Amino acid sequence: MSSQTAKLKVDPRDGKLAMAHFYVAFIALALGGLMGLLQTLVRSGKFELPWGIDYYQILTVHGVLMGLVLTTFFIMGFQYAAVSRTAGTHSPAARRIGWIGFWVMTVGTIMAATMVLLKEASVLYTFYAPLKAHWIFYLGMTFVVVGSWLDGAAQIMTYAKWRKENPGKPSPLLSFMAVINTVLWIVATLGVASTVLFQLLPWSLGLVDTVDVLISRTLFWYFGHPLVYFWLLPAYMCWYAIVPKIIGGKIFSDSLARLSFILFLLFSIPVGFHHQLMEPGIDPAWKFLQVVLTFMVIIPSLMTAFSLFATFERFGRSKGATGLFGWFKVLPWNDARFTVPFIGMASFIPAGAGGIINASNQMNQVVHNTIWVTGHFHLTAATSVVLTFFGISYWLVPHLTGRKLTKAMNKLGIIQGWVWFIGMVFMSGAMHFQGLLGGPRRSAFSTYGDAAQAAEWIPYQIAQAVGGSILFLGIILMIIIFVNLAFFAPKGEEEFPVGEAENLEEKAPMIFENWKLWLGITAALILFAYTIPFIDMIQNAPPGSPGFKTWNSW
Amino acid sequence: MAKAELKSNKKTEIEDSSSLKGTLASVFFLGIFIVVTWVSVYFLFLDRF
Fold first, then answer.
1. Partners of residue B23 in chain A, C-beta under 8 Å
2. What is the CA angle A547-A553-A554, rounded to 5?
3. Residue A433 burial (CB < 10 Å; 0-12/13-18/19+)?
4. Which of A95, A477, A493, B42 could share a disulfide with A416, CB 3.0–4.6 Å?
5. Are A160 and A176 in contact (CB under 8 A)?
């Protein structure tokens, strides 16, 4: 019995590394959240930043900390722990690589953050050329990416060890999912690494005078779209494989879950052009092809929705629920580990619908570069993904620190989830509507010479400030819960829930573990979608651009 | 006698516990929501461009 308990627990040495990632992630949440609050206050027109702090500087801090630092650190910590829990304790070599990865990422974060704080890099989190930052910013971002590769390598090593020790068996579901997401990340980051190493770094160091903006943006979006799936898949790991256990139900189908992850790997990368639909220099036929591939991603998303509904309904009916929606009522609504990720899942319905609108060529003309887009990714990343990460923290942090989620913290967690939801309804809702009225994203407050159209936007901007303030309250609550669970909660054992498939007879087909096949198709799709457009872009290259610095130094 | 019993044809209201009709309704709702939002923005596009 005791050996079984020991097996179900993440080894404390692995737990320490996962927690190191979470400390950085939650510091990023606190600082990035404060910047977000300030942005919404500035855009309300009622508040100005003191001491010469620039709107675009805090916008960069918010985007980099929330979109890149919080997500990457949390995901790597969570996946590292999930692989350790399901495929076995990491070897000392894998753990050492994981620690090196963590420190490389942390040093990179400090380098990039320092340059932003010194007003040397107000280039927003997409760091589009020809906006030019200090070279230390780009080098710092490179370190974050390289560090994450090392973190990922540790997970792949432990997965490979499991496969070697268990020939002919499908790997544990959570480990399989973590490795798919790591592979997706490695393939995607090759694009951003290329633009940073071969274009932006030499250019910011003064080794070359100009940069090819189109190539740089294309390489960025080759990375930028799978980036959002890199955020989303760990949330799906929780929804598919952890939430069923929390509610006391079963995973609807292990094979369906694996297939949907493989489809995400195949179809989330060769689709970057749907972020560049309004850009000149790319043949519309290739844009069309990538839009078609983008729509293929809807398939695994709908498979996920079906599978989750089915898990919930099966569980509800096993508890005696009747009628069309009786099962909905018997779900454990007083358990923060379920309710908070559930709010995230529900938010993915409008989030996904908005995404299909963004990716449709004509509708992209309606919403492109408007604050609708900001509203969209505050539903996907900042609600679906982040609330699921919070839900994971409620059990994972005490599991790793040898503490318990108390009743009081569970209640505070549920309150936190609802506060977040209400704040986001105001903020993201107002962003969506203002965007449809043409309100631009990435802009400080302006009345645009007292234009009538701009006057229409102001009530929505005030609603965003109200929502932003409520969300900041949500962040304070989350930090209180995190600190409590990490340092002050009573000692005890908190479960790391891992779901079981409903039908244990149904073994996942081994073809799902055939990496040569899936990586081969991934590469083929990428080459198909990008080769000819790249040749075209290079042969008909626009003139290179010098760097621009649109902000004032200190 | 047995025949008469069979004929009584009493309707028994036992719900199949493996039923997924709630899931079916939910995914239909989801599909309709996606179509409605898409079509509304499409009409906005037609109206403007």
1. 306, 309-310, 313
2. 165
3. middle
4. A477
5. no
Cα(A268)–Cα(A298) distance, integer angstroms: 10
Rounded-to-integer distance, Cα A531 and Cα A222, Å: 12
Q: For A311-331, what is each residue's pLDDT tens digit?
A: 999 999 998 888 899 899 999
Q: In chain B, which residues have their Cβ closer than 8 Å to the Cβ of A325?
A: 22, 25
CA–CA separation, A77 vs A153, rounded Å?
13
**Residue A103, domain extent:** 8-211
Q: Are residues A155 and A15 in the same domain?
A: yes
Query: Do A427 and A463 meet the contact criterion of CB atoms below 8 Å apart?
Result: yes
Instruction: Kindly determine whether residue B38 and residue A325, on different chains, have CB atoms separated by under 8 Å.
Output: no
Enumerate the residues of chain B whose CB falls inside 8 A of the CB of residue A316: 22
Domain end: A470, A485, A504, which one?
A504
Question: Would you state the structure tokens that stand for residue A483, as one six-digit string?
Answer: 């600190």
Q: Tell me if A279 is assigned to some domain.
A: no
How many CB contacts within 8 angstroms connect chain A with chain B? 68
A296 within some domain:
no
Residue B30 located in a structural domain:
yes
Catalytic residue annotation of A: 225, 229, 376-378, 441-442
Q: Are residues A197 and A345 in the same domain?
A: no
* Digit-coded pLDDT (tens) for A80-123: 999 999 999 999 999 999 999 999 999 999 999 999 999 999 99
What is the domain range of residue B38?
Answer: 23-49
Q: Which of A504, A529, A548 is the last residue of a domain?
A: A504
Interface confidence, given as ipTM, is 0.87
Cα four-point dihedral sign A434, A440, A445, A448: negative
- Residue A533 belongs to some domain of the structure: no
Q: Are A69 and A109 in contact (CB under 8 A)?
A: yes
Give the total number of structural domains in chain A.
Answer: 2
Angle (CA) A334-A337-A339 rounded to 5° is: 55
